[in-house]
Write a sequence for this structure.
């Protein structure tokens, strides 16, 4: 049931619009006796629907404040067990979609920051945690009339292999100066997003945590073991491994910057540098992206 | 002419891929006698095409190194007059598209950072410049078989109005606590992107600089003058004004965070606060987005 | 009157301590009829004094909460005219110092972000503002028994000159590969801090705004006009100019990164590059610092 | 042997100056058979000495280029085993100090970013690594005529405890609104720097790695176990524990922001919130600092 696009008074069309609240942060502490668990989330909510009058007439009667979205994240965050970020995102998206008839699509994205339990004198500490790295666990749920679309993901997982990476036999033109190499450092900050097979009847049946763990493991293990001829070559193998390991997903999109480590030329100082000393650089960087589907 | 998608050995499909170099930086100094001009650019290049063998076989024969893309930006940056970032992006995209038969689409994005000429003793200084704010002038060119798609844009233009902004009469549900207001601060960091009408015969005829200047002016002036009932309301008026002022564009997408300035409650100290003292916040923030077309 | 340092039970000494609230943000809107003025501040407060029992015994009786410091910034921010950040910092520092007998030193730092009034149809707009660049106006006030120490400053003023900068005749050792040049780009992000002559009787007599304006102008003008033999050479001339232009200060500390712009080697492509195309880099960077006194 | 400060022609004095190269990055790969080790460093070099003529006359004869410092870091980085960042910093500082007679003090700071070896199928992978968190291992060495001063440190170690933290019984004034609490989240991003006892004869005898490990462990363990009455109270206990655990240091400076997690008020929605749902905030934040000595 597509919404009819109305022409605005000025002769223009409001082709698309969405609005919501971004970067709603929440820490949730759960307790089992003396043992606490701490999780930290950042939630983005965006709604699409019949909001034309808000734009064209300044009529806010269909405008649920973004402040209310923030409150809703906190209130449902208290009620919901949050066994997975995907299930919490589904609950939130369903809430925004079902409680407002003029909302056509509700999109909820969640980013989780890891807090690792402290190991203290050989035992897990009941209530002390150390923040993990830049890596974020992510998900996106789009709730529309035809049921939810669910994706999981990883952002900024920074990994490096110090060998088993080559780049040679490439195309050359008049601006090519790069030398081929059979051994280089391969460093990247992995971003991946995978889409779950849609089964509107029972999305809750998917074990999102197990899928995430298997996919993350397959991506890293393949990166580590692959005899890489290029970033593309390894990225593709990683995507295939993810699809192989988790039958519940039908596609995966991977984006990998090539965080170049440049070999330092020590020859002016009468020294050789057999792949020992490198300068890591942030910019420019290669950027390789692909979507692999079943 | 769509490329046939081939099935990879593993039973998966490489649905989409692109690769390129991101954040290629360049400063260009031009000279007219003693008077210098300095411009700073950051360029992203991304190619899409028949790169399947790179991914699936580790065969790099069709892989132009991203290092070559960087070199090309610098070499063509020297040759090209860069009268506008759009014309330079067109030149680069055309180069990558035309010189490699297996490239189906070449996308070039450029971001320009302003360097403002120093005013020195009432006169423009010939060679000293002060860096402008966070605002960036941007463009994107997509070069494909059917001709270029060209868009211009602005990122991170941070503007604030201290009155003529209200938010009232909005929807309420069980999680709504926000109070209506007829007078508040409205602060945002504007991102906009407009699409030029495509005329493959003569894209170069567009005066991109004049369009940019007119659109930017219309966006800011409308923000300043609008009696705002909501971010959506003002965003829409801004988009309409942009379309009105520049006939060469057919649509504009605007994304505006609501960078909330919260009124401080001074009543615990026996003081009133008639819209004088606010706390600006970065997160959470509202995010309002719309695309308006002719 | 120095505080006696007491030995803690564990045989250690608490040599020094300070505590406070950092990054207290505030926007203040002032009104003259229809014309508004908007200013944005970030305030840091730090107190030093007899706080040993807080540390060693967990006794908080002398601990004014940092939350109270935040409230104080907002409450005094409402009451105070804030004609200059220095005068507001003095007021705050004096408040914290005088109202708590066990506070030996109160340090208040303020950073101001510029909001420039929009020029609209040739006239200043009454209530619309555009955020300026990364440059910040800063000050620090230290309030102690013997009277206030006041400094002003500038942070992150990014300036560039495209000629009149050389670096030659320098020392060489076995690790030197740099080539001398008589013409290069000189780009920096200036940080400066100047100290006002202390006159405990009447610090308020100083016209901080006029001093700041004169010093900032002298720093930029000297950077622009100097025939630079090195960053050091120009930094020193800038510091001397600042001391010359403002008799109310007795010293200035300047810190200037050398934000290298590397000339691109286009010779592999059969092209020359007579100081036209450069790659700006963020790291590594030179860092030159000096304190110049009367 | 202090350098005589000379008056500059303009009647000013160059009281202090230093110059150097900052953010020199280096990745070093070491190999034992098939097993690689990867370490990443960022080095800052700063020299103080008789550099007046560079500033006042534009005479560069005593100016070793900062580019040479960068080269030196890479060349010595190749030669040196880098068993600890402290020993490498000592080597670098000694080099700059001893090879240039007019250098009075050479200061070298190193920051190390962790790369953790991948655990792959239950075994350590020979050449694949995952980047650790924001935590950095740091050191500073100051080499002067009278021997080196050596400090080690930690930056941005982000830790959180979800109970055993109170803040009550504090001072109140007219601007105090904070409520006392006997149970709150305590989150911080620890920065610490400790100073080694100087023994110019044999600094190399210190086992810097063992000291670092013991100090880091004592800081975290104390944070975890302490019954905290305030950030100050816990910080002090942490400093004492560090001094107790490592006899080779004579003092430690700790700086701890109080990264407030605010309890969400769910009462408007008819819900209680017994320390379950919090909003983590970045600003403003408390900042507590102390130096504890033997």
């Amino acid at each position: 049931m597509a919404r009819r696009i109305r022409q605005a008074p000025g002769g223009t069309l409001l082709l698309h619009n969405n609005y919501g609240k971004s970067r709603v942060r929440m820490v949730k502490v759960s307790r089992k006796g003396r043992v606490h668990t701490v999780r930290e989330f950042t939630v983005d909510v965006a709604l699409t629907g019949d909001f034309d009058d808000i734009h064209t007439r300044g009529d806010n009667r269909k405008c649920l404040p973004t402040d209310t979205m923030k409150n809703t994240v906190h209130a449902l965050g208290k009620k919901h067990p949050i066994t997975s970020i995907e299930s919490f995102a589904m609950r939130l998206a369903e809430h925004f979609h079902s409680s407002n008839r003029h909302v056509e699509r509700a999109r909820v994205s969640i980013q989780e920051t890891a807090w690792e339990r402290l190991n203290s004198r050989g035992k897990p500490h009941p209530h002390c945690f150390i923040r993990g790295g830049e890596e974020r666990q992510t998900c996106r749920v789009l709730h529309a009339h035809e049921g939810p679309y669910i994706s999981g993901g990883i952002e900024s997982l920074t990994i490096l292999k110090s060998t088993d990476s080559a780049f040679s036999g490439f195309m050359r033109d008049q601006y090519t100066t790069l030398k081929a190499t059979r051994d280089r450092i391969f460093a990247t900050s992995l971003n991946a997003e995978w889409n779950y097979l849609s089964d509107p009847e029972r999305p809750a049946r998917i074990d999102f945590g197990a899928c995430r763990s298997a996919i993350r493991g397959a991506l890293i293990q393949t990166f580590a073991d692959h005899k890489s001829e290029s970033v593309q070559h390894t990225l593709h193998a990683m995507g295939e491994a993810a699809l192989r390991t988790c039958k519940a997903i039908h596609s995966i999109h991977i984006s990998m910057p090539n965080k170049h480590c440049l070999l330092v030329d020590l020859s002016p100082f009468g020294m050789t540098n057999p792949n020992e000393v490198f300068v890591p650089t942030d910019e420019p960087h290669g950027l390789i992206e692909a979507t692999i589907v079943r």
